[in-house]
Write a structure and sequence with these properties.
With 411 residues, the protein is mostly helical. It contains 32 helices and no strands. Helix 22 packs across helix 23, helix 24 crosses helix 25 and helix 27 runs antiparallel to helix 28. The two termini are 58 Å apart.
Protein backbone atom coordinates (compact mmCIF):
# COMPACT_ATOMS: atom_id res chain seq x y z
CA UNK A 1 0.00 0.00 0.00
CA UNK A 2 2.83 2.40 0.85
CA UNK A 3 4.32 2.05 -2.60
CA UNK A 4 1.01 2.83 -4.31
CA UNK A 5 0.25 5.81 -2.07
CA UNK A 6 3.72 7.28 -2.41
CA UNK A 7 3.45 7.03 -6.21
CA UNK A 8 0.09 8.80 -6.29
CA UNK A 9 -0.43 12.48 -6.99
CA UNK A 10 -1.50 14.83 -4.15
CA UNK A 11 -5.01 14.97 -5.63
CA UNK A 12 -5.25 11.17 -5.73
CA UNK A 13 -4.11 10.94 -2.12
CA UNK A 14 -6.72 13.45 -1.00
CA UNK A 15 -9.46 11.56 -2.81
CA UNK A 16 -8.71 8.46 -0.71
CA UNK A 17 -7.53 10.28 2.41
CA UNK A 18 -10.44 9.27 4.64
CA UNK A 19 -10.20 5.64 3.56
CA UNK A 20 -6.47 5.76 4.18
CA UNK A 21 -6.96 7.13 7.69
CA UNK A 22 -9.62 4.52 8.44
CA UNK A 23 -7.42 1.65 7.26
CA UNK A 24 -4.06 2.84 8.53
CA UNK A 25 -4.27 5.70 11.05
CA UNK A 26 -0.48 5.80 11.43
CA UNK A 27 2.00 8.66 11.65
CA UNK A 28 3.14 7.74 8.14
CA UNK A 29 -0.41 8.01 6.75
CA UNK A 30 -0.95 11.31 8.54
CA UNK A 31 2.26 12.76 7.15
CA UNK A 32 1.39 11.69 3.58
CA UNK A 33 -2.09 13.24 3.76
CA UNK A 34 -0.76 16.44 5.36
CA UNK A 35 1.90 16.78 2.68
CA UNK A 36 -0.69 16.25 -0.05
CA UNK A 37 -3.12 18.71 1.54
CA UNK A 38 -0.49 21.43 1.37
CA UNK A 39 -0.21 20.98 -2.41
CA UNK A 40 -3.78 20.73 -3.68
CA UNK A 41 -6.15 23.56 -4.54
CA UNK A 42 -8.26 25.11 -1.74
CA UNK A 43 -11.55 23.99 -3.30
CA UNK A 44 -10.44 20.38 -2.93
CA UNK A 45 -9.64 20.74 0.75
CA UNK A 46 -13.12 21.83 1.73
CA UNK A 47 -14.44 18.40 0.74
CA UNK A 48 -12.14 16.79 3.29
CA UNK A 49 -12.75 18.82 6.45
CA UNK A 50 -13.41 15.77 8.58
CA UNK A 51 -10.16 14.07 7.53
CA UNK A 52 -8.02 17.16 8.01
CA UNK A 53 -9.29 17.86 11.53
CA UNK A 54 -9.01 14.19 12.41
CA UNK A 55 -5.32 14.24 11.52
CA UNK A 56 -4.53 17.44 13.41
CA UNK A 57 -7.35 19.58 14.81
CA UNK A 58 -5.52 22.89 15.03
CA UNK A 59 -3.70 22.48 11.71
CA UNK A 60 -6.85 21.24 9.96
CA UNK A 61 -9.05 24.08 11.15
CA UNK A 62 -6.47 26.68 10.14
CA UNK A 63 -6.09 25.13 6.69
CA UNK A 64 -9.85 25.12 6.23
CA UNK A 65 -10.13 28.78 7.21
CA UNK A 66 -7.51 29.70 4.64
CA UNK A 67 -9.22 27.55 2.01
CA UNK A 68 -12.61 29.12 2.63
CA UNK A 69 -11.13 32.57 2.03
CA UNK A 70 -9.91 31.50 -1.41
CA UNK A 71 -12.91 29.44 -2.55
CA UNK A 72 -15.99 30.55 -4.40
CA UNK A 73 -19.39 30.19 -2.76
CA UNK A 74 -20.37 27.38 -5.11
CA UNK A 75 -17.52 25.21 -3.83
CA UNK A 76 -18.25 26.15 -0.24
CA UNK A 77 -21.92 25.28 -0.59
CA UNK A 78 -21.08 21.62 -1.11
CA UNK A 79 -18.44 21.55 1.61
CA UNK A 80 -20.79 22.34 4.48
CA UNK A 81 -18.79 20.34 6.99
CA UNK A 82 -15.88 22.70 6.50
CA UNK A 83 -18.02 25.73 7.26
CA UNK A 84 -18.36 24.67 10.87
CA UNK A 85 -14.67 25.37 11.37
CA UNK A 86 -14.75 28.85 9.91
CA UNK A 87 -16.99 30.53 12.43
CA UNK A 88 -20.09 32.58 11.66
CA UNK A 89 -18.30 35.90 11.87
CA UNK A 90 -15.58 34.91 9.42
CA UNK A 91 -18.04 33.30 7.02
CA UNK A 92 -20.32 36.31 7.09
CA UNK A 93 -17.42 38.54 6.07
CA UNK A 94 -16.66 36.25 3.13
CA UNK A 95 -20.31 36.09 2.10
CA UNK A 96 -20.75 39.86 2.26
CA UNK A 97 -17.53 40.42 0.35
CA UNK A 98 -18.73 38.22 -2.50
CA UNK A 99 -22.24 39.67 -2.43
CA UNK A 100 -20.83 43.19 -2.73
CA UNK A 101 -18.65 42.01 -5.61
CA UNK A 102 -21.80 40.81 -7.41
CA UNK A 103 -20.74 37.20 -7.07
CA UNK A 104 -23.49 35.33 -8.94
CA UNK A 105 -22.84 32.22 -6.87
CA UNK A 106 -23.56 34.19 -3.71
CA UNK A 107 -27.14 34.46 -4.95
CA UNK A 108 -27.47 31.00 -6.43
CA UNK A 109 -26.21 29.24 -3.28
CA UNK A 110 -27.52 31.66 -0.68
CA UNK A 111 -29.77 29.02 0.89
CA UNK A 112 -26.71 27.00 1.88
CA UNK A 113 -25.49 29.86 4.06
CA UNK A 114 -28.60 30.76 5.98
CA UNK A 115 -27.58 28.51 8.86
CA UNK A 116 -24.16 30.13 9.08
CA UNK A 117 -24.91 33.73 8.11
CA UNK A 118 -27.81 35.20 10.12
CA UNK A 119 -28.06 38.26 7.87
CA UNK A 120 -27.90 36.30 4.59
CA UNK A 121 -31.41 37.28 3.51
CA UNK A 122 -30.69 40.96 3.98
CA UNK A 123 -27.64 40.75 1.72
CA UNK A 124 -29.46 38.47 -0.69
CA UNK A 125 -32.21 40.95 -1.53
CA UNK A 126 -29.80 43.70 -2.60
CA UNK A 127 -27.69 41.21 -4.55
CA UNK A 128 -30.69 39.92 -6.51
CA UNK A 129 -31.74 43.50 -7.27
CA UNK A 130 -28.32 44.19 -8.79
CA UNK A 131 -28.34 40.91 -10.67
CA UNK A 132 -31.73 41.75 -12.21
CA UNK A 133 -30.14 44.77 -13.89
CA UNK A 134 -27.34 42.67 -15.36
CA UNK A 135 -29.00 39.34 -16.07
CA UNK A 136 -32.75 39.18 -15.41
CA UNK A 137 -33.12 35.88 -17.25
CA UNK A 138 -30.71 34.20 -14.87
CA UNK A 139 -32.67 35.57 -11.91
CA UNK A 140 -35.77 33.85 -13.30
CA UNK A 141 -33.81 30.61 -13.59
CA UNK A 142 -32.57 30.60 -9.98
CA UNK A 143 -35.87 31.59 -8.36
CA UNK A 144 -35.54 28.73 -5.86
CA UNK A 145 -32.44 30.45 -4.46
CA UNK A 146 -34.44 33.45 -3.23
CA UNK A 147 -37.97 32.05 -3.22
CA UNK A 148 -37.89 31.76 0.58
CA UNK A 149 -37.20 35.49 0.97
CA UNK A 150 -40.17 37.53 2.28
CA UNK A 151 -39.91 39.66 -0.87
CA UNK A 152 -38.99 36.82 -3.19
CA UNK A 153 -42.11 37.09 -5.36
CA UNK A 154 -41.52 40.83 -5.64
CA UNK A 155 -38.03 40.11 -6.97
CA UNK A 156 -39.44 37.55 -9.40
CA UNK A 157 -41.85 40.15 -10.75
CA UNK A 158 -39.09 42.72 -11.22
CA UNK A 159 -36.92 40.15 -12.98
CA UNK A 160 -39.79 39.04 -15.23
CA UNK A 161 -40.64 42.57 -16.33
CA UNK A 162 -36.98 43.33 -17.03
CA UNK A 163 -36.45 40.03 -18.86
CA UNK A 164 -39.47 40.66 -21.09
CA UNK A 165 -37.39 43.46 -22.63
CA UNK A 166 -33.83 42.21 -22.22
CA UNK A 167 -34.24 38.44 -22.46
CA UNK A 168 -37.73 37.46 -23.66
CA UNK A 169 -36.61 33.88 -24.32
CA UNK A 170 -36.24 33.37 -20.57
CA UNK A 171 -39.80 34.60 -20.04
CA UNK A 172 -41.08 32.00 -22.51
CA UNK A 173 -38.93 29.35 -20.84
CA UNK A 174 -40.29 30.14 -17.37
CA UNK A 175 -43.84 31.04 -18.35
CA UNK A 176 -45.34 28.38 -16.07
CA UNK A 177 -43.38 29.68 -13.08
CA UNK A 178 -44.48 33.23 -13.81
CA UNK A 179 -48.07 32.06 -14.05
CA UNK A 180 -47.86 30.17 -10.78
CA UNK A 181 -46.32 32.92 -8.67
CA UNK A 182 -47.44 36.02 -10.57
CA UNK A 183 -50.94 35.16 -11.84
CA UNK A 184 -52.10 38.79 -11.83
CA UNK A 185 -49.07 39.93 -13.83
CA UNK A 186 -48.61 37.01 -16.23
CA UNK A 187 -50.61 38.53 -19.08
CA UNK A 188 -48.74 41.84 -19.06
CA UNK A 189 -45.36 40.12 -18.81
CA UNK A 190 -46.05 37.65 -21.60
CA UNK A 191 -47.55 40.30 -23.88
CA UNK A 192 -44.44 42.42 -23.44
CA UNK A 193 -42.13 39.46 -24.21
CA UNK A 194 -44.16 38.45 -27.28
CA UNK A 195 -44.19 41.99 -28.70
CA UNK A 196 -40.43 42.17 -28.15
CA UNK A 197 -39.67 38.76 -29.65
CA UNK A 198 -42.52 37.77 -31.99
CA UNK A 199 -40.28 35.35 -33.89
CA UNK A 200 -39.54 33.41 -30.72
CA UNK A 201 -43.21 33.42 -29.78
CA UNK A 202 -44.31 31.90 -33.09
CA UNK A 203 -41.54 29.29 -32.98
CA UNK A 204 -42.55 28.15 -29.50
CA UNK A 205 -46.23 27.85 -30.31
CA UNK A 206 -45.37 24.73 -32.30
CA UNK A 207 -42.11 23.49 -30.82
CA UNK A 208 -42.63 23.83 -27.06
CA UNK A 209 -45.92 22.58 -25.67
CA UNK A 210 -45.60 24.25 -22.27
CA UNK A 211 -44.39 27.66 -23.47
CA UNK A 212 -46.53 27.44 -26.58
CA UNK A 213 -49.72 26.99 -24.60
CA UNK A 214 -48.89 29.98 -22.40
CA UNK A 215 -48.06 32.14 -25.41
CA UNK A 216 -51.19 31.11 -27.30
CA UNK A 217 -53.38 31.82 -24.26
CA UNK A 218 -51.76 35.24 -23.78
CA UNK A 219 -52.48 36.11 -27.41
CA UNK A 220 -56.08 34.93 -27.16
CA UNK A 221 -56.62 37.02 -24.02
CA UNK A 222 -54.95 40.11 -25.48
CA UNK A 223 -56.65 43.11 -27.06
CA UNK A 224 -53.52 44.04 -29.02
CA UNK A 225 -53.99 43.77 -32.77
CA UNK A 226 -50.30 42.87 -33.30
CA UNK A 227 -50.71 39.73 -31.22
CA UNK A 228 -53.91 38.68 -32.97
CA UNK A 229 -52.03 38.98 -36.27
CA UNK A 230 -49.27 36.71 -34.94
CA UNK A 231 -51.76 33.97 -34.19
CA UNK A 232 -53.20 34.35 -37.68
CA UNK A 233 -49.71 33.94 -39.15
CA UNK A 234 -48.92 30.97 -36.91
CA UNK A 235 -52.12 29.17 -37.96
CA UNK A 236 -51.82 30.07 -41.65
CA UNK A 237 -50.53 27.79 -44.37
CA UNK A 238 -47.41 29.80 -45.15
CA UNK A 239 -44.39 27.85 -46.27
CA UNK A 240 -41.47 27.44 -43.91
CA UNK A 241 -40.68 28.70 -40.43
CA UNK A 242 -38.31 31.35 -41.84
CA UNK A 243 -41.13 32.93 -43.83
CA UNK A 244 -43.41 32.98 -40.78
CA UNK A 245 -40.61 34.55 -38.71
CA UNK A 246 -40.20 37.38 -41.22
CA UNK A 247 -43.94 37.90 -41.42
CA UNK A 248 -44.08 38.13 -37.61
CA UNK A 249 -41.65 41.05 -37.69
CA UNK A 250 -43.53 42.78 -40.50
CA UNK A 251 -46.73 42.41 -38.46
CA UNK A 252 -45.19 44.42 -35.64
CA UNK A 253 -44.87 47.38 -38.01
CA UNK A 254 -48.07 46.85 -40.03
CA UNK A 255 -50.52 44.97 -37.79
CA UNK A 256 -53.54 46.12 -39.78
CA UNK A 257 -52.24 44.71 -43.08
CA UNK A 258 -53.79 41.49 -44.37
CA UNK A 259 -51.49 38.49 -44.04
CA UNK A 260 -51.07 38.29 -47.83
CA UNK A 261 -49.48 41.77 -47.82
CA UNK A 262 -47.27 40.83 -44.86
CA UNK A 263 -46.10 37.82 -46.84
CA UNK A 264 -45.33 39.98 -49.90
CA UNK A 265 -43.12 42.34 -47.85
CA UNK A 266 -41.40 39.43 -46.13
CA UNK A 267 -40.53 37.88 -49.51
CA UNK A 268 -39.07 41.12 -50.91
CA UNK A 269 -35.40 41.24 -49.74
CA UNK A 270 -35.05 44.98 -50.30
CA UNK A 271 -38.31 45.95 -48.63
CA UNK A 272 -37.71 43.57 -45.73
CA UNK A 273 -34.17 44.83 -45.11
CA UNK A 274 -35.33 48.44 -45.07
CA UNK A 275 -38.10 47.51 -42.64
CA UNK A 276 -35.61 45.76 -40.35
CA UNK A 277 -33.34 48.81 -40.26
CA UNK A 278 -36.27 51.13 -39.70
CA UNK A 279 -37.37 49.06 -36.69
CA UNK A 280 -33.80 48.60 -35.45
CA UNK A 281 -33.05 52.30 -35.23
CA UNK A 282 -36.46 53.50 -34.07
CA UNK A 283 -36.54 53.90 -30.26
CA UNK A 284 -39.09 51.66 -28.55
CA UNK A 285 -40.08 50.00 -31.83
CA UNK A 286 -41.91 46.68 -31.41
CA UNK A 287 -40.13 43.43 -32.21
CA UNK A 288 -36.75 44.81 -31.15
CA UNK A 289 -35.28 41.54 -29.88
CA UNK A 290 -36.33 39.60 -33.00
CA UNK A 291 -35.12 42.41 -35.25
CA UNK A 292 -31.71 42.35 -33.59
CA UNK A 293 -31.37 38.62 -34.20
CA UNK A 294 -32.49 38.86 -37.83
CA UNK A 295 -30.19 41.83 -38.54
CA UNK A 296 -27.26 39.93 -37.02
CA UNK A 297 -28.05 36.77 -39.02
CA UNK A 298 -28.29 38.75 -42.25
CA UNK A 299 -25.05 40.64 -41.55
CA UNK A 300 -23.11 37.45 -40.88
CA UNK A 301 -24.49 35.86 -44.05
CA UNK A 302 -23.48 38.81 -46.23
CA UNK A 303 -20.01 39.12 -44.67
CA UNK A 304 -19.37 35.39 -45.18
CA UNK A 305 -20.35 35.77 -48.83
CA UNK A 306 -17.81 38.61 -49.18
CA UNK A 307 -15.15 36.56 -47.39
CA UNK A 308 -15.72 33.55 -49.65
CA UNK A 309 -14.98 35.73 -52.68
CA UNK A 310 -11.66 37.04 -51.35
CA UNK A 311 -9.80 35.93 -54.49
CA UNK A 312 -12.21 37.73 -56.82
CA UNK A 313 -12.07 41.30 -58.10
CA UNK A 314 -13.71 43.85 -55.81
CA UNK A 315 -16.60 44.48 -58.18
CA UNK A 316 -17.63 40.86 -57.90
CA UNK A 317 -16.59 40.39 -54.29
CA UNK A 318 -18.64 43.29 -52.97
CA UNK A 319 -21.55 42.93 -55.40
CA UNK A 320 -23.90 42.01 -52.53
CA UNK A 321 -23.52 45.51 -51.02
CA UNK A 322 -23.43 47.46 -54.28
CA UNK A 323 -26.72 49.20 -53.48
CA UNK A 324 -26.22 49.52 -49.71
CA UNK A 325 -26.44 53.02 -48.27
CA UNK A 326 -24.29 54.29 -45.41
CA UNK A 327 -26.71 53.17 -42.73
CA UNK A 328 -26.85 49.66 -44.15
CA UNK A 329 -23.05 49.45 -44.43
CA UNK A 330 -22.59 50.62 -40.83
CA UNK A 331 -25.08 48.01 -39.65
CA UNK A 332 -23.41 45.27 -41.69
CA UNK A 333 -20.01 46.05 -40.18
CA UNK A 334 -21.02 46.24 -36.52
CA UNK A 335 -23.29 43.19 -36.61
CA UNK A 336 -20.93 41.11 -38.73
CA UNK A 337 -17.77 42.07 -36.84
CA UNK A 338 -16.91 38.53 -35.72
CA UNK A 339 -16.82 37.32 -39.34
CA UNK A 340 -14.82 40.14 -40.91
CA UNK A 341 -11.53 39.51 -42.72
CA UNK A 342 -9.12 42.44 -42.85
CA UNK A 343 -9.76 42.94 -46.55
CA UNK A 344 -13.52 42.59 -46.06
CA UNK A 345 -13.52 45.27 -43.38
CA UNK A 346 -11.36 47.66 -45.39
CA UNK A 347 -13.57 47.25 -48.45
CA UNK A 348 -16.74 47.92 -46.46
CA UNK A 349 -15.22 50.88 -44.61
CA UNK A 350 -14.09 52.48 -47.87
CA UNK A 351 -17.57 52.07 -49.29
CA UNK A 352 -19.02 53.55 -46.12
CA UNK A 353 -16.89 56.68 -46.44
CA UNK A 354 -17.76 56.98 -50.14
CA UNK A 355 -21.43 56.47 -49.30
CA UNK A 356 -21.41 59.22 -46.69
CA UNK A 357 -19.99 61.70 -49.20
CA UNK A 358 -22.42 60.63 -51.91
CA UNK A 359 -25.39 61.00 -49.58
CA UNK A 360 -24.13 64.28 -48.16
CA UNK A 361 -24.07 62.84 -44.64
CA UNK A 362 -21.42 63.69 -42.05
CA UNK A 363 -20.12 60.88 -39.79
CA UNK A 364 -21.73 62.56 -36.80
CA UNK A 365 -25.10 62.61 -38.59
CA UNK A 366 -24.86 58.86 -39.17
CA UNK A 367 -24.07 58.22 -35.51
CA UNK A 368 -27.02 60.37 -34.50
CA UNK A 369 -29.25 58.49 -36.93
CA UNK A 370 -28.35 55.14 -35.34
CA UNK A 371 -28.63 56.59 -31.84
CA UNK A 372 -24.97 55.70 -31.22
CA UNK A 373 -26.01 52.05 -31.23
CA UNK A 374 -23.04 49.68 -31.57
CA UNK A 375 -20.62 52.60 -31.36
CA UNK A 376 -18.07 50.63 -29.37
CA UNK A 377 -17.60 47.80 -31.87
CA UNK A 378 -17.52 50.35 -34.71
CA UNK A 379 -14.74 52.39 -33.07
CA UNK A 380 -12.89 49.27 -31.96
CA UNK A 381 -12.88 47.90 -35.51
CA UNK A 382 -11.78 51.23 -36.98
CA UNK A 383 -8.91 51.38 -34.52
CA UNK A 384 -7.97 47.72 -35.03
CA UNK A 385 -7.76 48.13 -38.81
CA UNK A 386 -6.12 51.59 -38.64
CA UNK A 387 -9.02 53.46 -40.23
CA UNK A 388 -9.99 55.56 -37.21
CA UNK A 389 -7.91 58.61 -38.23
CA UNK A 390 -9.77 58.67 -41.56
CA UNK A 391 -13.12 58.63 -39.73
CA UNK A 392 -12.06 61.34 -37.28
CA UNK A 393 -10.70 63.55 -40.07
CA UNK A 394 -14.26 64.06 -41.29
CA UNK A 395 -15.49 65.23 -37.88
CA UNK A 396 -15.21 68.57 -36.09
CA UNK A 397 -13.46 68.75 -32.74
CA UNK A 398 -16.76 69.06 -30.91
CA UNK A 399 -18.22 66.06 -32.76
CA UNK A 400 -15.11 64.04 -31.94
CA UNK A 401 -15.50 64.93 -28.28
CA UNK A 402 -19.18 63.92 -28.33
CA UNK A 403 -18.33 60.60 -29.92
CA UNK A 404 -15.51 59.85 -27.47
CA UNK A 405 -17.75 60.75 -24.53
CA UNK A 406 -20.39 58.34 -25.80
CA UNK A 407 -17.76 55.68 -26.35
CA UNK A 408 -16.49 55.73 -22.77
CA UNK A 409 -19.89 55.99 -21.11
CA UNK A 410 -20.75 53.04 -18.86
CA UNK A 411 -17.50 51.21 -19.55
Amino acid sequence: MKTAVEAATPEEVMNVSQVLMDLAPTDWARSVVKASAEKVKPEMLIYHGRTLTQIDTKWGEQLLRESVEECGLRELSVGAYSLAFVGKESLEKIFVKKILANDVDAVRYANDYREYVPQADMYLYSAVERLIERNPGYVLEIFDSYRHHPRGVELLKAASLKAAQADPKSVFQHAERIGEFLPADKQVILESAIINHPVGAIERIYTNRSAGNSIRLAIVNSDRVELKKLLEIAQGGFQGSEQKSKMAVVAMRYPSYPVQELERIARDPGAFTKLLLSLRYTPDAPGRYSVDELVADNAREVVREINDLHNEADDKRFAAVRNYNALELYTLMVYGEDELFTSSYNGLFSRLMTGLKGEGIAPQDLLTRVGYEKLRPFIRLASQYHRLPEWLSQMSSSDQETMITRFVQNI
